[in-house]
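in:
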C-alpha cells in the first residue's frame, strides 16, 4: 500500500526523497495502484497522446568503448554488420522515411566515444538540411561532447541531445571501464549550457539494485532532463555483460511509474526491449509513459508500425503525428520499407532467454 502522505506528494508534484522513491519500488507497492496514481500526471501534460520515435543507426560498430551491454563495444563478439557513417543524402532520405512513418522525432545514433571536430561540422550540416526539409524534431546521439561543439549543433537547429546515464554512479564500473559516470554527466552539462533539450535515461536489467534505479531517476531530475528513455537490457550471445535474470513485467511497470512520479512533466519513453520485458503490459505502462520507439533498437529488431499503432489505439491512446497514420497502418504489412527499417537489426535468439527468473 502507498501511504496517503506519499500519494499527496505525487499528486501535488512535490519532489520525492530517495526513501519515498524506494517505497514505490518495494514488493508491498501494488503496480496498478501506482500506475493509477501517476496516470493523472501523464494526462495533465500529455493527455492521451503517444509520441513515436524512430532510431537511425548512422554508424555501426568500430567503437573503442567497452560498454559491456552493447553489441557494438570493442570487446563484443556479436556478429553485427559494421559500417562507417552514412552519407548526408542517405541520412536525409531516412529522415524523410521516418517522417512519413509518423515519427514525431528522428534520432540519429553514431557509435564511438565522441565526435571529432570534422564530424561535428558534418552533423551540423545534416541537422540543418533535415530541419529545412521536414517538420520533424531531431535528436542526436554521438557520445561525449564539449561545450564548444555542442554550441555548433545548437546553432544548426538541433532539438535534443541523447546521452544516457545508463545506470547509477556506484554501479557504473560494473558496466564500463573506458569512460566514467562523470564523463557522461559532463556531457549533459555541456549540452544544457547551450540550451539543447537533454534526453537521458537508463537501462533496466543490468544487475542494478532498486537503489541504483532511484539514484538515476533523482540524478536526472537534478540535471533538468526533458526526455527519459527507459531501456531494458537485451542479451545476445557475445555481449560482455552476459545473460542476466530478467526483471518482471510488473516491476518494469513500477519503474516506469516511478520515473513519472519523479519527473511529472518529462517525456518518458518505452525504449529498447519494451516488447520483451513488458509484453502484454506495454499498454498499461503507457499510463505513465507517453512515448516509445518503433521499428527496432539499433541492432535488434522491435515491433513494426502496424503492431505498435494497434497496441496504442487498442489501449485507448492516440498517436501524436502529423501524417495520416490510419491509412499508413492499413497498408503497413505490405510495405517492406516500413517493416524493415534497418538491415543491421538482428533477431533475438530465443524467447526462452527472456523468461523472468
Amino acid at each position: 500500500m502507498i501511504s496517503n502522505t506519499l500519494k499527496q506528494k505525487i499528486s501535488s508534484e512535490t519532489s520525492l526523497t530517495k526513501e519515498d522513491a524506494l517505497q514505490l519500488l518495494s514488493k508491498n507497492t501494488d503496480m496498478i495502484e501506482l500506475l493509477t496514481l501517476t496516470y493523472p500526471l501523464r494526462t495533465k501534460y500529455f493527455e492521451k497522446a503517444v509520441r513515436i520515435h524512430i532510431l537511425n543507426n548512422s554508424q555501426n560498430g568500430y567503437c573503442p568503448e567497452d560498454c559491456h551491454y552493447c553489441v557494438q563495444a570493442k570487446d563484443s563478439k556479436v556478429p553485427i554488420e559494421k559500417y562507417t557513417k552514412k552519407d548526408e543524402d542517405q541520412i536525409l532520405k531516412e529522415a524523410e522515411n521516418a517522417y512519413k512513418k509518423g515519427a514525431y522525432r528522428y534520432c540519429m545514433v553514431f557509435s564511438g566515444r565522441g565526435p571529432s571536430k570534422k564530424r561535428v561540422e558534418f552533423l551540423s550540416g545534416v541537422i540543418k538540411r533535415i530541419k529545412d526539409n521536414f517538420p520533424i524534431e531531431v535528436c542526436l546521439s554521438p557520445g561525449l561532447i564539449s561545450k564548444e561543439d555542442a554550441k555548433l549543433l545548437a546553432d544548426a537547429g538541433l532539438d535534443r541531445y541523447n546521452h544516457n546515464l545508463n545506470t547509477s554512479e556506484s554501479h557504473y564500473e560494473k558496466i564500463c571501464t573506458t569512460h566514467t559516470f562523470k564523463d557522461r554527466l559532463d556531457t549533459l552539462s555541456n549540452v544544457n549550457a547551450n540550451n539543447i533539450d537533454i534526453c537521458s535515461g537508463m537501462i533496466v536489467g543490468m544487475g542494478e539494485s532498486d537503489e541504483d534505479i532511484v539514484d538515476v531517476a533523482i540524478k536526472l531530475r537534478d540535471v533538468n532532463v526533458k526526455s527519459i528513455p527507459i531501456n531494458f537490457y537485451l542479451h545476445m550471445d557475445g555481449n560482455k555483460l552476459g545473460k542476466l535474470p530478467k526483471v518482471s513485467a510488473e516491476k518494469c511497470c513500477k519503474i516506469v511509474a516511478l520515473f513519472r512520479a519523479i519527473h511529472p512533466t518529462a517525456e518518458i519513453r518505452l525504449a529498447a526491449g519494451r516488447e520483451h520485458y513488458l509484453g502484454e503490459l506495454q499498454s498499461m505502462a503507457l499510463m505513465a509513459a507517453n512515448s516509445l520507439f518503433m521499428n527496432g533498437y539499433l541492432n535488434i529488431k522491435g515491433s513494426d508500425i502496424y503492431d505498435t499503432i494497434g497496441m496504442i489505439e487498442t489501449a485507448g491512446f492516440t498517436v501524436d503525428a502529423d501524417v495520416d497514420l490510419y491509412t499508413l497502418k492499413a497498408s503497413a504489412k505490405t510495405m517492406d520499407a516500413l517493416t524493415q527499417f534497418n538491415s543491421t537489426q538482428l533477431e533475438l535468439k530465443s524467447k526462452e532467454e527472456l523468461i523472468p527468473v
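note: The radius of gyration is 19 Å.
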